[in-house]
Predict the 3D structure of the following.
Amino acid sequence: MSPTYSEYLRLEELLKLQTGVEGKTREISNDELHFILVHQNFELWFKLIINELKCARDILSSDFVEEENLPQAVHHMERVIETFKLMSMQWKVMETLEPQDFLNFRDDLGTASGFESFQMREMENLMGQKWVDGKLFGKKLDSKQKSLYDVTCEWLFRTPIQGSILGSDGDESSVNNFIDEYVEAHKKQYPDTNQEVLEFFDVEATTRRRRAGLLFIESYRSLPLLAWPRKLISKLIELEQAMVLWRASHARMVERMIGRRIGTGGSSGVDYLDMTTKFRVFIDLWLVRSILIKKDSLPKLINSEFYEFKGK
Ligand code: HEM
């Protein structure tokens, strides 16, 4: 027998969960019901985001990512991006609570705070957010699983550069030649900022090849075989941007609600939240933008046929 709408969504149970702490005797006000509902809504979206991030991570985590699997990873990321955008607007609903009315029940929250949202920490862990010593304000965070950042790094590391495949004969010198030629080409176009490119590549060998791979994809964007890789990189940037904007809009809502008061979770409040908008996970992806050069000035492409679509 087919379930009813309500059975399928388990609505009866879901709609009983807006009472505040279990066993609480006092009735919650209309404002507090609003406060709880908005939070629960966000946490449901977090659940969706976590699931989608895991799917994208799993696709990218294989040792060889088939070209045809990239669109699916992009698809998962697009869903996360749209959800973050929606959540950025959702703060407006929270703001219909007047700051003075919030004070009617704020003390009852005690030390409870979004700070303790374990789903928030899982989202950050899945993205690849690094906290100092794996700790946030002294509390150890569990991040044993691979992040989207980890698998992206591994994937970029394997990028064929000038047609040269990782581990093949002469790969090291092909990569070095590409880097040298790029540095030269950059110097011609932007002599004043050439130091930035040198610093970009003045790193240990694994990071160096990974960065060269990233720069190669970003530079030779029009090559058919690089179409999906570059789309994936754009989506990663868009994803992080959407998350940063969501953090920023939370901070602005909080400033309007509690001004410069400290948070119930014990942080400095708005200052702490503003600080979190400075975090970047995909640092190289942001960094590479400052060292790009015009298409016409790029080093000559070698083995261009390697990047053509091949019939099966
Ligand atoms: C009246 C509404 C709200 C106020 C005044 C507020 C205030 C704050 C403050 C001050 C913090 C910093 C930590 C602390 O010391 O408590 C914080 C963190 C946080 N809040 Fe809110 N918040 C509100 C609503 C929401 C809602 C609706 C959500 C949705 C789930 C949310 C999610 C979070 C998260 C995830 C953090 C941790 C951020 C991080 O550590 O990066 N907040 N909030």
In short: The first strand starts at residue 135 and ends at 136. Residues 38-39, 42-43, 94, 102, 113-115, 117, 120, 250, 254, 257-258, 263-267, 269, 272-273, 276 surround protoporphyrin IX containing FE (CB under 6 Å).
